[in-house]
Amino acid sequence: MKLIIFAFIALLTLTNCAEKNRTFSTSEIAILPKPISLDLNKASFAFKADQTIFSNLDEQQIAAQDLQNYINKTASFNLNIDKNNNSSIVFEKKEGLNAQSYELSVTPKKITIYANDVAGYFYGVQTVKQLMAIETSKDTRHTKYLVPSVTIKDGPRFKWRAFMLDEARYFHGEVFVKQMLDQMALLKMNTFHWHLIDDAGWRIEIKKYPLLTKVGAFRADSEIGTWKSGKTSGQPHGGFYTQEQIKDIVAYAKARNINIVPEFEMPGHSSAAIAAYTWLGTAGIAIDVPVKFGRLYDNYDVTKPEVITFMKDVLTEIFELFPSEVIHIGGDEVGYEVWEKSSSVQKYMKENNIPTPADLQINFTNKISHYIEENGRRMMGWNEILGKNIHTDFAEKQADKEAETVLSKNVIVHFWKGDLGLLTDAAKKGYGIVNSLHSSAYLDYNYKSIPLEKAYAFDPIPEGLDAQYHENIYGLGCQMWSEWTPTNADVERQAFPRIAAYAEVGWTSLENKNYNSFKIALKKMQKHWDNLGINYFKDAE
User: Fold this and answer.
1) Closest CA relative to residue 127, chosen from 534, 533, 538, 524
2) Smallest Cα–Cα separation from 358: which of 399, 418, 414, 307?
3) Do the strands 111-115 and 102-106 form a parallel or antiparallel pair, or are they unpaired?
4) N or C: which end of the chain has fewer CB within 10 A?
5) Structural contact between residues 479 and 502, judged by C-beta atoms closer than 8 angstroms
6) What domains appear along the chain, each with residue ranges and CATH number?
């Protein structure tokens, strides 16, 4: 009898201990980006050493492993993934949930993440990470890993939520890229736009053309300060990723539900390639990798069959490295003067009834688009590829005629400059659009030009766009151009905290957004960045 009483008391004690996990207040809950709905309940769940994670579907494995790795790194114990449905942490399929959506149920005894695809499960885990509070008793020194009891329903507003890193200007390296991918994943961003090729550097190994990195990845000096400053660093700069490093980073991104979209600039911004192989250019002049940044006008000679072969060869190796459905080809700021002065280019245009350089660019772009499509992919490019002159503010392009040639229809237009009329015209023609309007979404702009609140207020669907075209807007990209950010700390200062604002822009519905609540949630995220040593801009308002 005494044993029974003792057992009962022990059981009661354990139950009471479980109930001691405290109840959180609303002010303690901070999730970025803000979910669709959140109901806060009493008590909380505590991660413990004797628990397991239940995951029995292939589509759940990335999320389960991510949670396991996080707990194993964070806590003083390890959790195992199990096939036992009696586990304390459960991934459960729920038919009918939209793509990338999830539901989260946390009780004192159990965490359940419901979803219908890989992304949904993963995003549920990111929310659990942000909810978890680590508390150590002053008396016992015992540490608890608590998750508030909540019920959450959540899903993204847009399917495309991108951060772009420009490494053509400055090479930042594998460790830094992985750090950025980690923070993107936590913020539920799903696209890493990797700008690896430009005038100032070629950063990706192409085995068929070794000079692209042997020559094109290195320059003797770098312009500093600002455009046409006349000042240089006095230091050489260079670096590139081997194909093995690329494969490793792609796998790292996949494990964080991030797709990497590589950008191969063409037909302009091609100086690094032309420095490596003079025959690629139109002018036929040997050049060095430029020291100055800006618009440097020699272009690929797109009338030469051997240049088209080069493009296809490079793209073939890119296809092998990047599983992304989308391949970005740039296409921006192409100076036409070198084509206009080339007798062979002019002859080609006359023979093929190509009336203007803008038409020549689209003629070429369509060839590349068709090749990309033949390989099961889809082309993306900056909105100059439509053939509209969006650069009347550039003296050298004021007189450029607009193209009559129609751009291939399966192309994604990356909108960065222009007005509502241009964007509406692209939508009317059926193009998918990613909005990265420079005046609202360029991270290289200073905080006076784009303060935190302006970044948060950006809407990828511009005011005045007819509702029938809203579905053409895939989402947004925030662009980290790196001409004036040579160090990793410089990039961090420009990107953080605004990247969190853009993450919420891409995820949270307009009616659910609130700048004041965003700033409260941001404070918690900033503590996380402090722990990582991220050099975020601390005076952002």
Assistant:
1) 524
2) 399
3) antiparallel
4) N
5) no
6) 18-154 (3.30.379.10), 160-532 (3.20.20.80)
Please tell me the predicted confidence (pLDDT) of residue 10: 41
Q: Give the Cα separation of 438 and 415 in Å (integer).
A: 9
Average pLDDT by stretches of 10, the chain with 541 residues? 40 46 94 98 95 95 97 93 88 97 98 98 98 85 93 98 98 98 98 98 98 98 92 97 98 98 97 98 97 92 98 98 98 96 98 97 98 98 94 86 93 97 96 98 98 98 97 98 97 98 98 97 96 93 67
Closest CA to 240 of 172, 287, 319, 330: 172
Q: In the beta sheet, which residues pair with residue 145?
A: 47, 134
Can you give the pLDDT at residue 395? 81
Closest CA to 257 of 54, 75, 421, 118: 118
Find all residues with CB under 8 Å of 66, minimum gap 6, and list them: 122, 125, 255, 256
Query: In 132-278, which ranges are continuous DSSP H helix?
Result: 174-186, 211-214, 243-254, 271-276
pLDDT at 72: 95
- The pLDDT, as a whole number, for residue 16 is 43
**What six digits make up the tokens of 375?**
């390989």
Tokens of 351: 């023979």
- Which residues pair with residue 136 across a beta bridge? 143
> Which tokens sit at 432?
């998918």
Residue 3 confidence (pLDDT): 39
Tokens of 227: 């455009």
Identity of the amino acid at 305: P
Q: Where are the beta strands (DSSP E) in 329-431?
A: 378-382, 412-415
> In 69-103, which positions are buried (b, 16+ CB within 10 angstroms) versus exposed (e)?
ebbeeebeeebebbeeeebbbbbbeeeebeebbbb
pTM: 0.95
Cα separations in angstroms, 367 against 329, 357, 363, 409: 12, 15, 7, 13
Output the six-digit token pair for 34: 């803000």
Give the DSSP H or E segment for 145: strand 143-154
Angle at 13 between CA 10 and CA 18, to 5 degrees: 130
* Amino acid symbol at 105: S
Residue 305 preceded by cis peptide, ω within 30: no
What is the SS3 assignment for 35-79? CCEEEEEEEEEEECCCCEEECCCHHHHHHHHHHHHHHHHHCCCCC
Residue type, 261: V
CA-angle at 540, arms to 535 and 541, nearest 5°: 160
Side-chain-facing half-sphere of 322: CA atoms under 13 Å: 29
